[in-house]
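Hey,
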Amino acid sequence: MHDPSLTSRQRAYLRALAHSLKPVLQVGNDGVSDAFLHSLGEAFRTRELLKVRVLGSAPENARTAGNMIMARIPEVATVMTIGRIVALYRPFPENPEIALPR
């Protein structure tokens, strides 16, 4: 599921930016746990766009993990899900660095 506040053009722009990124976090045996969400929140302090890898041992698949993250962290949008990789976007509250197309 994608965030309805992002247009398809904005999502395509973010997908292009995310293409070269490496995953910064992994969802493992514990799934989308409080500890994982805390680490993700910390990662979003320094970047607006990041990738997460969902390991084969995780209880959820990548799409479900993305939906769970969107439900638990405000302002996060799933940009894309490819295989076990989820790209997530959350603009900085003040002075966003990524200028989205209209």
